[in-house]
């Protein structure tokens, strides 16, 4: 087995050839360091300097691990140029202790990271703890049945379920990352009919007027309008009527049907009903006769009386 050479940090003047350098800093002495799964050395007390040919394939990932600590994994986004040095930093966190009595086989860890504290973590529908300070540690044993999925859930949030593609080895940790979002407030649709929705805005000059579409009551106007939801896949309406007591009803035709998300305006003007005049009552008493007519009647009466007297003689 070839011995690994650990180089101290070097200045650009000391570096020759077509290469640059990664200077890897780690907080845990003796941790194993990998670049794209290639072992490049263990973390010294200071920093590990790794030469990188600038004409080679760039490294994409750094992984640092040690038994009893969470595995550190991060992307490498900067490639050193000729004679340049790039610093990489790895922070390992110590895993919670386990009691020897609880260990059936070799122990590894799943570390579930989540943005919401108090969320419950389940492995294959078995509860394993709650998120605290953004993380929960779940011990697993190499001799146990492997888990296949993990779920993170909390009331008021949309649950997340992901797949588990590998089992951690002894002393290894596998990180699982989750971000859950507040659940959307459910919306209640006023009709059970499916399809895309459009709107009619019925404008009227009278508030509190009833609006009907093809004799189907849709509501009453308020502040000069009424919005009526319709489904573009439904049967088109043909006419609308607006009416209120004391006003002449208004009926209009519906010529345009809204498309998805579109609004069609309809206008109605209500006029007050005309005032009615009470009929003239029929008189119940007879009017007195005109004086001229009365005089003529008296003369005729006298003439008749004289004729009757002469006849008797």
Give the N-terminus to C-terminus distance in angstroms: 182 Å
Q: How many domains?
A: 3
- Can you count the helices? 1
Give the H and E element order.
EEEEEEEEEEEEEEEEEEEEEEEH
Share of helical residues: under 10%
Strand content: 35-45%
Mean pLDDT: 78
Derived structural class = mainly beta
The CATH architecture of the largest domain comes to Sandwich
Number of beta strands: 23
CATH class of the largest domain: Mainly Beta
Unreliable segments of 5+ consecutive residues? 1-16, 99-104, 185-194
Oligomeric description of these chains: single chain
Calculate Rg over CA atoms.
48 Å
CATH topology tier name of the largest domain? Immunoglobulin-like
- Envelope shape: rod-shaped
Which strands sit side by side, in order, in the main sheet? 3-2-5-6
Biggest β-sheet description: 4 strands, antiparallel
